[in-house]
Each structure stands twice: as structure tokens, then as C-alpha cells.
From TrEMBL:
Keywords assigned by UniProt, alphabetized: Signal
Any Pfam family matching the protein: SBP_bac_1
InterPro entries: Bact_solute-bd_prot1 (IPR050490), SBP (IPR006059)
Signal sequence region: 1-25
Name of this protein: Extracellular solute-binding protein
Superkingdom assignment: Bacteria
Originating species: Paenibacillus rhizoplanae
Transmembrane annotation, as ranges: none
Entries under Gene3D superfamilies matching the protein: Periplasmic binding protein-like II
Keyword Signal: yes
Amino acid sequence: MRKIAALSISTVLLALTACSSPSNTNTKDTASSSADPKQPIDLRVGRYSLPTWGYPAGDDFANNIWYRHYADKFHLNVIHEWTALQNEYNEKLNIVIASGSIPDIVIEASTNQLETMVKAGMTADLTDVFEEHASDLTKEILTGDGGLAMDSATFDGKLMALPYTTSVIYEPSLLWVRQDWLDKLNLPVPKTIDDVIAVAKAFKEQDPDGNGIDDTGGLAFSNWLFDGITSTTGFFNGYHAYPQSWLKGDDGKITYGSVQPEMKNALAKLREMYQAGLIDPEFGMKDTTKVTEEVSGGKYGISYGRCWNVYMYGTGLEGQPDMVWTPLAAPSADGEDVFANVGTTVVSYYAVNKDYKHPEILVQLLNDYNEMAYGPNRNDPEVKKFFAFEKGQTIVEQGHLSLARTLTTDDATVKSLEYLIEAIEKRDPSKLDQALTETGKYEPSVAYLDGKGTGYMEYHQVKAFKTIVEGYGTDHLIPQAYGGTTETMLNKMGILGDYEREIFTKIIMGAEPIDAFDTFVSEWHKLGGQQILDEINASL
């Protein structure tokens, strides 16, 4: 059977640049190709683009620095068999797959698309190709999550694609608190769930904005409950509950986090807070956009969310010049360590048409990208041209024009964030030479700290990075233990998700008793949840 690992769809609200751990070891010759250098190799691909992508003078989507590099180094003639706008790409690829005629290399296929192609016998077995041609750096990156990403691309013991990996270190749900409000009310930063409740109560009742009007609230979250912004996820994590996550149980079988008993304890506490007026009585009717506007507008000063939340909250800075946010690791309800449920280490997949005569090209392209992006020469000005160019006063990215790419491991990201933090604290930009990501936040952060710039958002996100590194690291993350899609999941998961949020909302608001959670668990299994779990576990 196919080995399926930690994969799910992860929504990223910011374009975060991440990368692999540094490595100078590269035993494979990434420039080598099995092809005769006198004979160019045609490589047909289907690609997506965005109208906002920029190009240096004379370049365009089909004629760019990457394609010219491929021609020089690998003797490749890249042919766009078809193109689509990014929001139309999946639909176009689905049509191509259904036709039975895929390009030589399929770029960024989803889990479902890969499964369909493999079942139809369209894709090449890359097991031996990868072992023979992958550089040490490429292997380090693609196995940096403990092998989960590579396992997800393995069917019946055969590697049928290469994963486009990323880091999930950015995803823990942090507790964001208005530090200026804490200082005004002489309150310490919350360290426990009881402290969170106490702060929410103080912010609701003690006029933290000092305007003499009863216009502030307690804990802010939206009716979606578990999204990245204004979320309840961090609150549930404090009770060792992991909503909307596929978890691996002690018996090795996959379970669903939202039906575990720990969820009930957190719901009971949220219900108490609602009854005490510490949660907006109309939260069930307010979406994320609305609640985010209320937070940035000064109605709320405490909320859970991702490390990038301050980019939304900070939009209210002009009217609240004293606004300062402190990001904290999610406080615990019982003093035990808190773990964060996060998303996937895989963004998508690269696959090769089984009839293509040069499957090693995919591996070589990935080696090439990794060496330029993360290798020892990554800071060389000539190498940097492949990732960005200056257009007037604007830096325009173009790394997305490469045919194969990948992002970082969590360990590498943590190391890079540590270098960034140290560089800022010591005002020592030389530390950035060792960092592989987020280095662009150094200058605006230092300028903000020194009162010479407007790097408010960047500096506050760096504070969040430090919280993640110190509060979670890589050993307090719980990634999704399954990311495929079963037949019943396709038909039922949307309905089950709506049912879940509806019942949880009613329990919090008191429209249903707390024991309605037990009924929900039973009904969730009957309405298709158990069948989904059976299908998942049968595929392992």
C-alpha cells in the first residue's frame, strides 16, 4: 500500500521566503546531464503565471534568466505546452490529466492530482533516479521533516514524484496581547489560561484605551473559529487539543483532533467566558475580516493567531501611535508543555511523464535551484540575479520563474531566525551572512528600534519569530499526520466541517449544553467521519 504522511492544505497569507539548512557538501555533479551536449533536449511543461510578475527589459514569461540558464547548463529547450493564470491552473491541470496526455514534467500538482496520475499509470518511477542524481543538499532538504514529505510521494514502495517542501515553523497559533494596555492597567503578561481570562476581563472592563467609553472587548475570535487570524486554535492547544487535525494515535492509527475529549474541556471554558461577557455576543455572525478590523481599530487587545497577524493589526497604528503588541506562546491550562498543531511540510509535487526519456532532468533542476538558493554561493551577486532584480526603486522577485524549487526545513528556518534575532539585538548585520531567510527584516527592524524608520510590522513579526523559536522550536509542533483525500472525504468533509463549527459555536454561546459535544462526536462518526478514518487507515 501507499505510504501516506503529514500533508494538508496550508493557507499562507504572506509570501514568506524560507530555505534549507546550509550545506556545502554536494557529492553529485549538479551540472551533469546524461544528454549529449550537442543535442538540445526538449522539455514540455504546463505553467501558471500572474499578471503582476515583473521581468527585466527584453524578458518575458517564455524568455527569462532561468530558461537561458537551463539552455546553457543542461541544453534544455523549455517549451510551454500550455499556460494558465494561477487561479485557473488547477482546473487546467485537471483537464490535462483527464485527457491522459500530461507534459514531460508536471509542475506543482496537488495531492489529489498526483494520486490520479499515479493510479492511471501516467508518471515515472523516480526511486533510482533520485538516489543516483540527487545532491546531498537536495536530499537534506526533501528529507528534513523526517521523511514525511518523501513518504507522501511514495506509492507501493516507489517514489512517484518529488515534493515541493516548506517549513511549518511559522504556523503555531500565538497569543497576541496589547502590551501598552497591559502597562496602562499594570498587568503582567499572561502565562496561564487563567491569566488569559483575567487579562480579557481587565481589557473588557477597565477602559484600557483610556477614552472613558465602554467600547473594548475581551478575547477576540471569528465565527470560523480555526483560521490563522483571530483564531481559537491556540486556546485549544492550551488544553492539549488539536482541532481540525489528522493525528497519529499511540496505536499508529489516524484519528481526528476535533473529536478528542480534550476539545470538550476547552469548549467548556470558552462557554464560561462567553457567559461572563468576555467574548463578543455576536461573534457567531462576524467573519475574520470583520474581527480583524475590530482588533486593528482598538476594540480588542488580546487574540490568538499566526506570526504574521501584526501585519493586519498594525494597520491601526496611525490612530493609535502607542499600540505595541507582545506575541506569546499559547499559555497552558495545566502547566504542562503546549504543542501546536500545524499544517503540512508539502506544498505540492513535481512528477515526470512515464514516457519522457530524461526523468533525471527533474532532479538536476531541483539540485540546481537548491544550490543557488541555499548553497555557499547564494550571496554572490550573479546568483542573486536569478531571484530578484532592481526595477527603479523596486526589488522584483523572479525566483518563481524556475521550473523546480523547494523551500526550507524547520531546523534550517529556526537557525536562520536565530541569526536574524541576534543580528538585530547586537546591531550586527554580519550575522545575516549565515542566515538563509528573513534577512530583509533586519534593516526595518533596526530602524524602528532606533526611532529612525517605520519597520513596525517587521519588528513585531521578528518578536513573533523569537517567541516561536523559544516557545516551540521544532520539537513542540504536531504536523498533520495525513494529507491525502479519500472518496468519502471528498463528499463528506465539507459537511462535517460545517457541522463541527455550528455545534461548537452553539456550545460556546450556550445554545447547546456542553454535553452536546458527546453527541457531536457520535454523529460525526455516523455521518461519514468513521468511514473517512477507515479509508485513511486502510491506505497506510
